[in-house]
Specification:
single chain; alpha/beta; Protein-Tyrosine Phosphatase, Chain A; 5-stranded mixed sheet; 5 strands
Length: 155
């Protein structure tokens, strides 16, 4: 059997040297996450759908990687979801983080907002990185625009 590679993970994207995003990895693909030096996995998927990985917390822990689960309802992201994500990113800012959901849609939007509102990355740059993965639907576009308009102080 071939060794899993990060590039095999659905919609994997290396955003920076210390931040990678993706859709749902398989259990075997977490070997590649570990080999790449990721120290934290942040999962934004709900955890209760057929596409979620059963026992993901245990699989990640078996690799010696910290695990954070912030379930975000795809059709209804909330300010609290984003606040929890920002807190998790800031708590792990000195670690290599792998952030995923099912299709790297929720993740790419949250990461875009984090990069702009907390790291000062230009909107155009962060937006281009997100749009390489997906074009946000109206719900997500409105969520993104609302948070960009409100700025970093409210989250």
């Amino acid at each position: 059997m071939a060794t899993a590679k990060l590039s095999d993970i659905y919609r994997f994207q290396s955003v920076t040297a210390t931040l990678g995003t993706a859709g749902q990895p398989t259990a075997e693909q977490f070997d590649a996450v570990k080999e790449a030096g990721y120290e934290v996995v942040i999962n934004l998927a709900m955890g209760n759908t057929p596409r979620d990985l059963p026992n993901e917390p245990g699989i990640v822990a078996a690799h010696g990687i910290d695990y954070v689960h912030i379930p975000v309802v795809f059709d209804a992201p909330t300010d609290n979801d984003l606040s929890q994500f920002f807190a998790a990113m800031e708590a792990n800012q000195h670690k290599k983080c792998f952030v995923h959901c099912i299709a790297n849609a929720r993740v790419s939007a949250f990461v875009m907002l984090y990069r702009v509102l907390r790291q000062g990355v230009p909107v155009e740059e962060a937006d281009a990185t997100m749009r390489h993965i997906w074009e946000p639907n109206p719900t997500w576009q409105a969520f993104i625009e609302q948070h960009l308009a409100q700025g970093a102080s409210h989250v």
